Amino acid sequence: MAMLRLEQLSQHPILRPLDVSLDAGKVVGIIGPNGAGKSTLMRTIAGLLTPTGGQVFVNETPVQKLSSRQRAHHIAYLPQQLPDDIPYTVQEFVEMGRYSHQRVTFRASERGTPAVRRAIAQMGLEELVDTPLQHVSGGERQRAGIARCLAQESPVQLLDEPIASLDVYYQLDIMTQLRKMAQAGHLILIAIHHLEFALRFCDDLLVIRNGDFYDTGPVADVFTSKMVRDVFHIDATLFVDPFLNHSRLSFSPLDSET
């Protein structure tokens, strides 16, 4: 049984119908140029937008039939950008990830506290726990958002461009941690512009071009020079790094005469 299933899912006029089943234990990269519909797709899967056609199923339950608390129990969602005026400390904000596990308040229960501490440590935020989110940098705010998703412990994690505002150390660290989460049984969906990271860290890809679903499947099948040319309008060559022993990407603009 697929952990997440999209059945003729569409969001007119932005996204055209898609059928896809996604299994636990994978990092699935959603790639495509700016404006292709990646964020709209993620918000629809998260239940924040009502699809104009089709349905989203999580563990064979329609997402639109779940309450917000029930959705949070199944799906964690990080938007592309968090607001600048969130009136909570880093600690309080991460604790909100335990919302679906609480009966009354956002405050982490005794059961949830280890998950919050672990998420804060994973994101390197220990020294910022009492700092208001309004006073941290954009990268630190993004790491707090990821920590909140980790603390939520939902089986499906939807992360919209989570590494875009981070330096390369945290980009690599977070992608490595997401791989470990997938290996532990989560399904990770990540919208990502960094094509080399998609090539290196993702198991499957879902490629969107102008609202159409260009292709989906294992990285080895989907990530080709033709795909990069068709979708991103650049020439690309894939090769294996002789030192790191993983796939790399060399690219350049298309010849203006082609």
UniProtKB/TrEMBL annotation:
Highest taxon, organism lineage: Bacteria
Database matches in CDD domains: ABC_Iron-Siderophores_B12_Hemin (cd03214)
All residue ranges annotated as the ABC transporter domain in the record: 4-235
Pfam families in the record: ABC_tran
Any one GO MF annotation of this record: ATP binding
Organism: Alicyclobacillus fodiniaquatilis
Phylogenetic lineage: Bacteria, Bacillati, Bacillota, Bacilli, Bacillales
Keyword tags: ATP-binding, Nucleotide-binding, Translocase, Transport
InterPro entries registered for this protein in UniProt: AAA+_ATPase, ABC_transporter-like_ATP-bd, ABC_transporter-like_CS, P-loop_NTPase
Claim: ATP-binding is one of the keywords in the record: yes
Protein name, entry field: ABC transporter ATP-binding protein
Matches recorded under SMART domains: AAA
Annotated SUPFAM superfamilies: P-loop containing nucleoside triphosphate hydrolases
